[in-house]
Amino acid sequence: MSEQNSLYSDEGSDDNELSSGDEWLENYNAEVDHGSPDNNTVVSDEEANDEDDAAPENAELVWRETYEELDIDPFIQITGPSHNLNPNARMQILMGINQLPDYSFYWSNNKYLGNQGFKEVMSVKRYEKLNQYIHCNDIETDVPVDQPGHDKLHKIRPLIDSSLQNFAARYNPNKNQAIDEAMVAYKGRSVAKQYIPSKPTKWGFKV
């Protein structure tokens, strides 16, 4: 089999040590903006309320412009000083936007499948190791199933809490939007999995 048709490439840097769960969450909690990389301030509820109180009562609502109106690329850059989010997490987001049948295809030597940007960030082996060992919470603090206070999502609870806080603080809704529930398809074993026959996607997680 020629090099051009091999499944995937090991291009990428393996020089960096694997990120720990604490480092991952610390980077995730940092503000993801287009300004200075040192600006990691998270807007608190109190600060947000102060800004709201400062606005005049008769202030006119101004909707933010859409990406199309501003001619801005909405996709997230994987590397660069303008983002503090862990590269592995950003790659996961981009994989959801640009979906392929298998994650190894992003490192394919086939020019129609491979993602050169992914190859420049890390090798496929490093990506696999990061996903194998990453932890978002301390399993020692997990309350057993048969005791009060058990959290089915304990393993990713800090990630969920950080996401909700960041989404609420940074999302600026535009004029045209719709909010609805959705089913994330999943047929594996999980206590959070649901079966809703009326949905197009019957098995999965309701979000």
Automatic annotation (TrEMBL):
InterPro entries (UniProt xref): PGBD (IPR029526)
Where along the chain is composition biased (Acidic residues)? 44-55
Region annotated Disordered, chain positions: 1-56
Quote any Pfam family the record assigns. DDE_Tnp_1_7
Which residue range or ranges hold the PiggyBac transposable element-derived protein domain?
Answer: 92-206
Question: Which parts of the chain are coiled coil?
Answer: none
Q: What is this protein called?
A: PiggyBac transposable element-derived protein domain-containing protein
Tell me what organism the protein belongs to.
Answer: Mytilus galloprovincialis (Mediterranean mussel)
